[in-house]
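Worked example

This section walks through a single chain of length 294. The input is the sequence exactly as stored; nothing has been trimmed or padded.
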Amino acid sequence: MLDLIQAYENYLAKVKQASSNTIASYMRDIRQFAKWLRSAENVDVIDATQQNIANFFAYMEQEGRTGATISRCLASLKNFYAYVVSSGFLEKTPISDIHVDRGEKKTPQILSGREIELLLSQPACVDAKGYRDKAMLEVMYATGIRVTELIDLDVDDVNLEQGIIKCTTSKKSRIIPLYPAALKALNVYLRDIRKDMIESPNERALFVNISGVRMSRQGFWKILKHYQATAHIEKEITPHTLRHSFAVHLLENGADLSSLQELMGHSDISSTQLYTHLVNQKIKSVYEKCHPKA
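Given that input, the structure is written out below as tokens.
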């Protein structure tokens, strides 16, 4: 069964061309499921019944896993068994009739304009780390890119003369402009700072850590949490908070949905329409708070 799971991982990478994060998430769920099946039910994934799988999700609930986590795991297993059936190992998936309660979906956290200014002002540009952090935060908010896209940027993806970056995923590339402050911070970092931080002159990563190699997702997350603390912002901030805030602020200032979809790299405009809902919620909240008859 390990060979089947490995074959599925290869399929995700080579055929579906899924991102490394998607593959890691799917495989973590599937391997956890396979391990539990062997220890608790004494069966392999190829022999699992609908009851075995239902027992696994009951176990996850008993362990206190959130509805979102369980729902994601269900999606992982549905995709895996769809592959198993299409590959001829099973005639029918054992998971088609299993449903879980996703639970209440949290509204994305959005920073106000004042909170954004406060956060962006935190890096002290007195050393290499401060200049690098300033450039990263400015680029993140200027473009609304995902944290994986940020750390995957290479020097060649930056065009300072045109004031743009090229963001490339496994599926497509998109060009995103930079506002003047972000362009200035990135220019200073590239011109004066990065050359003294990189470990090798052949390093192509745009943003590097203190060891001189490509910044990691975890590394950027820690940097962001540090500046949240120094800014005394009470809202829970993640890298995606900057992406959400970017989208909402553009819509509030008149951006159209199709342009926002292109900037954010959404393949489906329904993902972009979420932000229209958030803007409408905010307008309603302001109305109810401020209108004398509300």
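What to look for: The CA atoms of residues 92 and 182 lie 53 Å apart.
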